[in-house]
Amino acid sequence: MKEGLTNFDQFFNLSKDMICYIRPDGFFDRMNPAWSLQFGWTQEELRSKNILEFLHPDDQPRFSEPLIRAMEGRAAVTFENRFRCKDSTYKWISWNAYFLPEQNRVFALTYDISPSKQASEMLRVIREDLETRLQQLNIELKRVQRQLSLSEMRFDLLEQNVEQYAVMVLDVEGHIVKWSAGAERMLGYHAKEIIGEYFSRFYQAEDIWRGRHHHALRSVLANGRFEDNGLRLRKDGTSFYAHVILMPFFDEAGTLSGFMKIMCDRTEYKKLHDQLRTAEERNHKLFEESMTGYCVLSPDGSINTCNHSFATMVGFESIHNAQQSNMNNLFPNSAVPQAILRSLYEHEIVQGKEFQLQRTNGELVSVLANFFGQFNDNGELVEVHGSFLNISKQKEAERHWNQKQNIGCND
Fold first, then answer.
1. What parts of the chain have a pLDDT lower than 50?
2. Could you say which DSSP state residue 153 is in?
3. What is the pLDDT at residue 46?
4. pLDDT given at position 102
5. Which residues, 6 or more positions from 124, have their beta carbon under 8 angstroms from its beta carbon?
6. R_g over Cα of the chain
7. CA pseudo-torsion sign 25, 29, 31, 37
8. Which of 41, 243, 342, 375 is the most exposed place for a label (fewest CB within 10 A)?
9. pLDDT on residue 309
10. 56: Cβ–Cβ under 8 A, 6 or more apart, which residues?
11. 200-234 pLDDT per residue, tens
C-alpha cells in the first residue's frame, strides 16, 4: 500500500495537468507543481486563500454550486471559470471534479482552455455579426434581383444600404460598369480609374492562371448564384480574405444584362478561425504527445478514444487499432476490471491502482492507473476516463534490489 502511494505521488508531481484536492471549506488541500507553473503562485500562496479569491468576480457566485453538487451526488461535475494569475491576468480553466467521501475532499483535474475559449468567443461574435449582415444583404439583393433589371436598378439606393461592403456591377463579359463607395474604401480604387476594367483585377495571379474568375461566371449562370471565400487584392497590392457573392441580372425579355458582385472583408474572421483551430490542434497535440497514457472507455470496456502513449504502452500499431479493441482483453486478471467498476460505482474515482496489462504481443507491462467515472442523472455509468503511467522499469529495479537483499541475507 505504501509503495502504491509513493508511485501515485510520483505521478501526481510529474503530471503536466493541474491536479488538486479541495477541502469542503473551499481551500486547496493539496495541488501539484503544475498549478504554480501555470499561474505563478507558490504552493503556500495558493493554500493560504479560499479559491474564490483567485476567481474572476463574475465567476465567484457560480463556483460553489458545482462543488456542492459533486459532494452531494454520485456523478462527476465539469465546469469552467477564470482563474487569476499572479500578474493579475486571468486564464480560462476547465474543471473535472469528483468527491472522495472517504477523504472528505474534492479531487479535481484542471486544464487551461484560455486560447480556445478566447478565440471561440471572438469568433462567435464576429460570425453572428457577419451572418446577420449577410442575411440582410441577401434579402435586399433578392428583392432587387426580382424587381429590377440592370438598366433600371437604383444602384445609389442599394449602395447606401450596404455601405460596409464592396458593391459593383459587371456587364455580361465581366467588365465593371458601376462602383460603390464601399468598394472604393475596401479596394482602394476610385470609380473613374476602375470603371471599364475586367473584374479579374482583384484576383491573385495564380488564381487567374487557374481560371477562377471564369469559373465564377460559369457557375453563376449555371446555378443562378455564386459564393466564394478566398484572397483578393487591393490597389496597393495587399491581400485580404473575402467572402464574395455574384448574382446575374436579366432584362424583361429574359436576356442576361450583367452581374452584381458583393465583397465582404472577412480577414478578422479568418484570423480568429485560424487561431481557434491552432488552439484546438495544440490541445490535441498536448494530449497526443503526453508521456501519460490516456483513454476513454465505454462501461463494457470498448476503447472510444486514446492517445498515442496509451496505444504504444499496450502494443497497438495505431490509435485506430486501439479503438477497435476492448480494454477488458488487456487484463490478464479478469477480476481487475470488475473490481474497478465496483469502485467507480461506490466512489466515482479509483486512484493509484497498480496492476499489469498484457500487451498485444503477450508481454506484461506494470502500470499505475487512475480512473474517473462519468454518470448520467439516473446514476448510470456512461463513460470511464483512465490515465496510465508505465512503472515497469521501477518495478524491475525493485525486483533486482530485493533479489540482492535476499542474496545478502542468505550469505
1. 1-5, 147-154, 156-157, 160-161
2. -
3. 93
4. 75
5. none
6. 31
7. positive
8. 342
9. 84
10. 81, 82, 83, 84, 90
11. 999 998 999 988 888 999 998 888 889 889 999 99
Q: Answer for the pair 366, 354: CB distance below 8 angstroms, yes or no.
A: yes
In three-state secondary structure terms, 393 is helix
Q: How far apart are CA 225 and CA 204, in angstroms?
A: 22
Note whether 97 and 77 are within 8 A (CB).
yes
Cα–Cα distance, 130 to 245 (Å, whole number): 14
Please give the C-alpha separations between residue 102 and each of 31, 348, 370, in angstroms, as whole numbers: 19, 12, 16
pLDDT at 85: 93
The total of other beta-carbon atoms located within 10 Å of residue 353's CB is 17
Give the C-alpha separation, 258 to 52, whole Å: 64
Strands 90-100 and 28-31, sheet pairing: unpaired
Angle at Cα 348 formed by Cα 345 and Cα 353, nearest 5°? 100
State the DSSP string of 162-222.
TTTSEEEEE-TTSBEEEE-HHHHHHH---HHHHTTSBGGGGS-HHHHHHTHHHHHHHHHHH
Helix, strand, coil content of the chain in percent (nearest 5): 45, 30, 25
Helix axes 114-147, 267-289, angle to 10 degrees: 140
What's the rounded Cα separation, in Å, for the pair 392 and 390?
A: 6
**CB distance 353 to 370 below 8 Å:** yes
Q: Which domains does the chain have, with CATH numbers?
A: 17-112 (3.30.450.20), 118-271 (3.30.450.20), 291-411 (3.30.450.20)
Q: How much is the pLDDT for 134? A: 64
Place of cell 505521478: 11
CA distance 114 to 87: 16
Q: What is the pLDDT of residue 2?
A: 44
Count of positions (residues) in the chain: 411
> φ, ψ for residue 24 (rounded to 5)?
-60, -25
* 303 close to 388: Cβ distance less than 8 angstroms: no
